[in-house]
Amino acid sequence: MKCRIYKVPFYIITRNVEDYFCKKIGFVVVRKNNFGTNKEIISGFSDFCELDIIEYDSYAMFLAREGKINNKIDYNRIIGQNTFAIALETLDFTNKKLATLKDIEEWEQNFETSEFYKYYQQMHIFDKDEKKAIRDKVKSISKRRLDGKL
């Protein structure tokens, strides 16, 4: 099985008392690899939650594309860091949702104004260079402390 590129809706999961709710926010273009992992094609974001079933309490909720989700995993840990989680519904990965060249070009042009990017920015994800700079800074502080210069 080859990697495939899909244009699929993404959802934001939030917690309301004991229930988890999700709301369809917009679309995202992702690459699904042989292992079933999804990765957004520009940012490389891959920490998507996977939704199996969304339960709609009413027809109005169905039309609004917001509903409860089956609590097969504990979203509490994921939501705890950012007050939300970004999710994809497994049922959306069909041949009808395969991305075309036009979809990919539009995604590339509109990425920085997309709803996905707004949520991605709120997640405080560090790139490799930033992580390395943080580690190096902590090492230098620790070394100064051990040398008695702090």
Question: What would you say this structure looks like, in words?
Answer:
The chain has 150 residues and is of the alpha+beta class. It contains five helices and seven strands; from the N terminus they run βββββαβαβααα. A hairpin with a 2-residue loop joins strand 1 and strand 2 (19-32). The model has no long low-confidence stretch (mean pLDDT 79).
User: How much β-strand is present in the residues?
Assistant: 25-35%
**Series of H and E elements:** EEEEEHEHEHHH
Total of helices: 5
The backbone outline, from C-alpha atoms, is globular
Taking Cα atoms only, what radius of gyration do you get, to the nearest Å?
19 Å
Tell me the total number of β-strands.
Answer: 7
Would you tell me the structural class of the helices and strands?
alpha+beta
Poorly predicted ranges: none
